[in-house]
Specification:
Blueprint lengths: L12 E2 L16 H6 L7 H6 L12 E2 L8 H6 L17 H4 L20 H67 L3
Parallel strand pairs: 1-2
Length: about 190
C-alpha cells in the first residue's frame, strides 16, 4: 500500500531494489560498477579522487510489501469511536507508552457510615466511578492497539527475515561469480 507523497515527504523506498531499478535487478550492470556502488561509467581519475556513496535511508520511508489484514473486530476494539481507524502499519508507540506499568496496591476500602452519605459523597462517588471507567477503557484500548501492532510487526519481521536469507544467498552467488572472474582474469 503506497502512501501519498507530498512536496516535503520523500517517496517511500520499496524493499526489493532501489527506486527506478530495471526489472530483474539489473544484475549485469558491469562488475566494476557493482563493486564501486554505481551503475554509470566513471573517468579513471574521478574514481581515485571521489566516491559515490549512497545517501542514508530513513527507516520510516521504507515500506515492506506485504498483505496484512487484521480482524475488523480487533481494529474496532483498538480504535477510538468517532476518530480515524487505528492503522498498525503507520502507528508508532513512544518508549514511554511501551514501558511496563508498576502494579499498584489498592488502598483499603473505608466504610462510610450511612449517616455521612450525603449529596457531596454521592457526587464524588459518581465522578470517581466515571473516572475509573474512562481509565479502564483507555488501558484496554492501548492494550488492543499494542497487540494489533505486535501482530503486524511479527508478520513484517518474518517477511524481512525471508528477504535477508534471499539477499544473503544472492550475495553469496555474486561473490562466487566475482572470485571465478578474478581467478580467470586477475584482480580488479
Amino acid at each position: 500500500m503506497a502512501r501519498p507523497s507530498s512536496d516535503r515527504t520523500p517517496a517511500p523506498l520499496l524493499l526489493g531494489g532501489p527506486a527506478g531499478a530495471p526489472p530483474g535487478g539489473g544484475a549485469l550492470l558491469g562488475l566494476r560498477s557493482l563493486l564501486q556502488g554505481t551503475n554509470k561509467p566513471k573517468e579513471p581519475a574521478s574514481c581515485l579522487s571521489s566516491r559515490d556513496t549512497p545517501s542514508p535511508v530513513d527507516p520510516d520511508t521504507v515500506e515492506v510489501l506485504m498483505t496484512f489484514e487484521p480482524d475488523p473486530a480487533d481494529l474496532a476494539l483498538s480504535s477510538i469511536p468517532g476518530h480515524e481507524t487505528f492503522d498498525p502499519r503507520r502507528h508508532r508507540f513512544s518508549e514511554e507508552e511501551l514501558k511496563p506499568q508498576p502494579i499498584m496496591k489498592k488502598a483499603r476500602k473505608i466504610q462510610v457510615p450511612e449517616e455521612q452519605k450525603d449529596e457531596k459523597y454521592w457526587s464524588r462517588r459518581y465522578k470517581n466511578n466515571e473516572a475509573a471507567k474512562r481509565s479502564r477503557d483507555a488501558r484496554r484500548l492501548k492494550e488492543n492497539q499494542i497487540s494489533v501492532r505486535a501482530a503486524f510487526l511479527e508478520k513484517e519481521n518474518a517477511l524481512l527475515r525471508q528477504e535477508v536469507v534471499a539477499v544473503r544467498q544472492e550475495l553469496s552467488h555474486y561473490r562466487a561469480v566475482l572470485s571465478r572472474y578474478q581467478a580467470q582474469h586477475g584482480a580488479l
